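Key result, reporting period 2: structure in, sequence out.
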């Protein structure tokens, strides 16, 4: 009984998929049940024919799924392309050369104003000029009559202090992480100072004397 039920369910599935017409389904069902009028010879379906049509229906369904998947993939690609086009359009710089030049000039003016405001404060000026302290390193080394060596650590700044030389105009960077060798071969700790022009970021003077901060 279970086999008959399964076969009837399979026939119903074939009919729903379009593999069997109503007449073919009725004929096959009557054959399974062993009743009803015999269908015309042209309408009789063998088990082999039913299986063949079932395979064809499965192939058609698989093809339809692949087609649908291709459509979804193509749709997704089109959406991505459209988004890229929109983003590219939004990011496009449509300013004229004159507008770009004016914006660059305004930006430079804003930076200059911010820097001028910073140079009114000792702490702000000291932090900013710490990035320019490299201009002081070689001149400080050259003050050694013999050899020299730095004693600062890897992450330790060479210039740890600063003060105004001329407020708002010249800043003095100060450190004590160098040793100069004297004529007798002894290493002497020194405090060194470096004057930097705030406007030009250029070195004005360096000096050193024995001692520690």
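The corresponding designed sequence is given below.
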């Amino acid at each position: 009984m279970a086999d008959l039920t399964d076969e009837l369910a399979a026939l119903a599935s074939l009919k729903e998929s379009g593999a069997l017409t109503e007449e073919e389904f009725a004929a096959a069902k009557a054959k399974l049940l062993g009743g009803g009028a015999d269908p015309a010879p042209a309408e009789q379906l063998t088990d082999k024919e039913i299986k063949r049509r079932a395979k064809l229906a499965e192939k058609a369904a698989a093809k339809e799924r692949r087609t649908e998947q291709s459509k979804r993939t193509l749709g997704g690609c089109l959406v991505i392309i459209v988004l890229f086009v929109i983003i590219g359009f939004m990011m496009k710089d449509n300013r004229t050369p004159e507008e770009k030049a004016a914006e660059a000039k305004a930006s430079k003016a804003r930076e200059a104003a911010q820097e001028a405001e910073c140079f009114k404060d000792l702490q702000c000026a000291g932090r900013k000029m710490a990035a320019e302290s490299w201009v002081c390193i070689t001149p400080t080394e050259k003050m050694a009559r013999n050899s020299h060596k730095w004693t600062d650590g890897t992450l330790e700044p060479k210039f740890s202090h600063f003060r105004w030389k001329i407020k708002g105009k010249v800043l003095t960077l100060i450190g004590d992480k160098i040793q100069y060798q004297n004529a007798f071969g002894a290493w002497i700790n020194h405090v060194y100072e470096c004057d930097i022009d705030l406007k030009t970021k250029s070195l004005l003077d360096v000096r050193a004397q024995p001692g520690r901060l």
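Residues 160 and 175 are 5 Å apart (CA to CA). The beta strands are 148-150, 161-166, 170-181, 187-197, 202-210. This case is discussed further under Risks and Mitigation.
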